[in-house]
């Protein structure tokens, strides 16, 4: 089972061999720390949007309802889909979804199992940096030797209404044009307001990392070494796999890493850029940071 801590999976209904999903694009208030909300754009009430789980060969229909005050679209990042379904209306025949309307993205999953994403591809500078992205994972129908399987979407946001060094409850609008980011998230939350990644000793653990936004993030694990097994939804042949403890996740990339839980304890898993390990430049550990906890 693939788990996205602090983010739900998107439900579907299957009828006549088609899996029907619904995505609602709407303004969202996302609680990133206790009582501290950022105001942005999300899917189904969440930033990032709910994680979509499918299988190779699935025939899928995504009905996307636009409840924003502006047009939008959805791009299926890394998927091989018909041109009209790719969701880039500025250059493709794929339609723009006006406010108050919907569009059905209908296609077959032809890619092999892997980690992908979805996100807006209209007015991307504004809409992506307001939070319009999510994970889309093509599951392997075959039994795998992985006991824990996690997905984490990385994010950074500028909340300029909070003075530097201040973290206090309230609702703060995201400024999508401001590159002075002061809050860094894993699945839309900042440490310590995150759900830890639970493991048991001896388990093989996979962590899938995705990034659609502005910055690259070097993600580092403590107490373990991991093997890099896939990039952009494509498996890396075993002879070419690297053993590492830090991996740079650039914008537009997904990476799958795996390790054996053989060193019990509570271990940090975080972006290694010091600025990104704080909440608005405050002293305690925060930001793009979680923990691996042995049960």
TrEMBL record:
What Gene Ontology molecular function terms does this protein carry? copper ion binding; oxidoreductase activity
Q: Where is the Plastocyanin-like domain?
A: 38-141, 187-281
Using the record, list the residue span of the signal peptide; answer none if the entry has no such feature. Answer: none
**CDD domains linked to this entry:** CuRO_D2_2dMcoN_like
Q: Which InterPro entries match?
A: Cu-oxidase-like_N, Cu-oxidase_C, Cu-oxidase_fam, Cupredoxin
Recorded hits in Gene3D superfamilies, A to Z, give: Cupredoxins - blue copper proteins
Q: Which residues form a coiled coil?
A: none
Top-rank lineage group of the source organism:
Bacteria
User: One of this protein's Pfam families, by short name?
Assistant: Cu-oxidase_3
* Name of the protein this chain belongs to: Multicopper oxidase
Question: In which organism is this protein found?
Answer: Desulforamulus aeronauticus DSM 10349
């Amino acid at each position: 089972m693939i788990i996205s801590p602090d983010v739900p999976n998107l439900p579907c209904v299957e009828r006549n061999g088609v899996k029907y999903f619904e995505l609602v694009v709407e303004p969202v208030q996302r609680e990133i720390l206790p009582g501290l909300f950022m105001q942005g754009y999300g899917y189904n009430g969440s930033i990032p949007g709910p994680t979509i789980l499918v299988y190779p060969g699935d025939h899928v229909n995504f009905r996307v309802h636009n409840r924003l005050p502006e047009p939008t679209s959805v791009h299926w990042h890394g998927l091989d889909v018909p041109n009209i379904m790719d969701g880039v209306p500025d250059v493709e025949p794929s339609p723009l979804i006006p406010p108050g309307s919907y569009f059905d993205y209908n296609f077959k999953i032809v890619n092999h199992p892997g980690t992908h994403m979805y996100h807006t591809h209209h007015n991307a500078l504004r809409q992506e940096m307001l939070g319009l992205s999510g994970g889309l994972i093509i599951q392997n129908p075959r039994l795998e030797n992985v006991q824990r399987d996690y997905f984490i979407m990385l994010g950074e946001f500028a909340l300029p209404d909070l003075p530097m060094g201040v973290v206090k409850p309230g609702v703060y609008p995201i400024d999508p044009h401001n590159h002075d980011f002061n809050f860094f998230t894993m699945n839309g939350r900042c440490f310590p307001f995150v759900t830890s990644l639970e493991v048991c000793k001896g388990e093989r653990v996979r962590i899938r990392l995705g990034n659609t936004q502005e910055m690259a993030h070097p993600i580092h694990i403590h107490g373990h070494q991991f093997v890099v097994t896939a990039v952009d939804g494509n498996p890396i042949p075993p002879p070419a796999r690297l053993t590492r403890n830090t991996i740079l996740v650039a914008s537009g990339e997904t990476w799958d890493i795996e390790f054996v839980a053989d060193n019990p304890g509570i271990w940090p898993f975080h972006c290694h850029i010091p600025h990104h390990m704080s909440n608005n430049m405050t002293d305690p550990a925060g930001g793009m940071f979680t923990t691996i906890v042995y049960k």
